[in-house]
Design brief:
The chain is an alpha/beta fold and about 250 residues long. It has eleven helices and eight strands. The protein is globular and about 45 Å long. The model has no long low-confidence stretch (mean pLDDT about 95). It binds phosphoenolpyruvate (PEP). Phosphoenolpyruvate (PEP) binds next to strand 8.
């Protein structure tokens, strides 16, 4: 039985005032114990979010980490060991905004995934196709190859301590959501790919869906057999909406 997870990606949003308000709103939420809840604030606010979520019900993750686990001469980057020291337990790897806007490539993502695990962080590997790729009937090839390159480099065992988020790029921040069946089809293919490498690992790994999840559509998505929760962008900036999504994952 996989424990559902709901993770809030705050992206590059927040000021000291708005983060304080969001933390207050989150502490008012009743969150189901059956769901693992996490937030991924901008690096700048990780300290205060860790401090503000002292009750331990919400884990804190980073949106990015360096390609090396240990501190060193790498201006502007953050080592995963530093993230652990700051109180993080998770890190996003390969979010489509980093792949597409920042230009991170497969090799870099593999190194980040490896560095995260070396420091004791759980990587949340984000994979997903663009609209063009979906329309060309390439969804499963793209997602399969994004996942396959990490399996090939690090081995299937790397997924015993990892989470996978399927995020169709065309659904991120657009208001367009994959239908529950569209998302389930891709999640089932991801699980089948993992199963071909190791059935036990495949059964245990959480597969999150991300792409315009809201309180109104969360329950239906999370009701699908291979969807184990969500990675939430925009709606995670509102504590009431995020709380409602977490509760939907607990039902
Ligand atoms: C995301 O940024 O990972 C995401 C899914 O964003 P949104 O929920 O806003 O589509």
């Amino acid at each position: 039985m996989r424990r559902p997870m709901v993770a809030g990606n705050w992206k590059m949003h927040g000021t000291r005032a708005s983060v304080a308000e969001l933390l207050e709103g989150l502490s008012d939420q009743s969150l189901p114990d059956s769901v693992e809840v996490a937030v991924f604030p901008p690096l700048l606010f990780i300290d205060r979010v860790v401090e503000g979520l002292q009750n331990g019900k919400i884990a804190v993750g980073a949106q990015n980490c360096a390609v090396q686990a240990e501190q060193g001469a790498l201006t502007g980057e953050t080592a995963s060991s530093q993230l652990v020291d700051a109180g993080c337990s998770l890190v996003l790897v390969g979010h489509s905004e980093r792949r597409q806007v920042i230009g991170e490539g497969e090799q870099q993502l593999i190194e980040k995934f490896r560095a995260a695990q070396a420091a004791g962080l759980t990587p949340v590997l984000c994979i997903g196709e663009t609209l063009e790729e979906r329309e060309a009937g390439q969804t499963l090839n793209i997602v399969g190859s994004q996942l396959g390159s990490v399996i090939a480099a690090l081995g299937i065992e790397a997924f015993t301590h990892a989470v996978i988020a399927y995020e169709p790029v065309w659904a991120i921040g657009t208001g367009l959501t994959a239908t529950p069946q569209q998302a389930q089809d891709v999640h089932a293919a991801i699980r089948a790919q993992l199963t071909a490498a190791d059935a036990k690992v495949a059964q245990a790994v959480r597969l999150l869906y991300g792409g315009s999840v809201k309180a109104a559509n969360a329950a239906e998505l999370f009701g699908m057999p291979d969807i184990d929760g969500g990675l939430i962008g925009g709606a995670s900036l509102n504590a009431d909406d995020f709380g409602a999504i977490c509760r939907a994952a607990g039902n």
